[in-house]
Amino acid sequence: MRTGVRSVAAGTLALVSAAAGSLAAQGSQRVARSAQPAMAVSAEAKLAPAQGLLRTLAGTWHFEMRFAGNFDGPADVSGTRVFTPLFDSLRLEWTEQLDHSTLLGQGVVGFDEKSGRFFSSGIYSGGSTPEFMTGTLDDGQPLVTFTPLPFGPDAKAFALNVIDTDHFTVTTLDRAWRAVFTRQQPQ
What we know:
The chain is an alpha+beta fold and 187 residues long. It has helices at residues 2-25, 43-57; strands at residues 59-67, 77-86, 88-98, 104-112, 117-124, 131-137, 143-148, 158-164, 167-172, 177-183.
């Protein structure tokens, strides 16, 4: 029986070797590569993209928010959010007014150049506690994923995605709601 097992193993090895040889004959090459861990982008390398993203957000925006399941109906909530520079190019203060409501919001969004992370805080007149978030910038696109700090209320993690200089979206990671922001041109 050992001879049979050895024959099967030898036959399998021969088939694998033949297949590899036929691939090489078809122009394929085997390339030996050592496994290299992806290099984490340093905080300094994230500074310029973060400044660019914050510079893009500065201005007046109209937003429309839709809750889960509302794909093509009128917006569930709409309003205006204004981002203004606060101290330097790394921090923006924002204020928000909902259309057809007296609810207000305000907060700060910015970038900490030491940690290479974004931060966000917000408080709303209809809420009881402020939200505190920390965010990471995607290395390949203008996308920041914010997650709530552990001592804060039950805020939802969300992603802020800059589409172009006149549009960005904010979407909760659980897809409970999404908002589309459109830049308002000065009049």
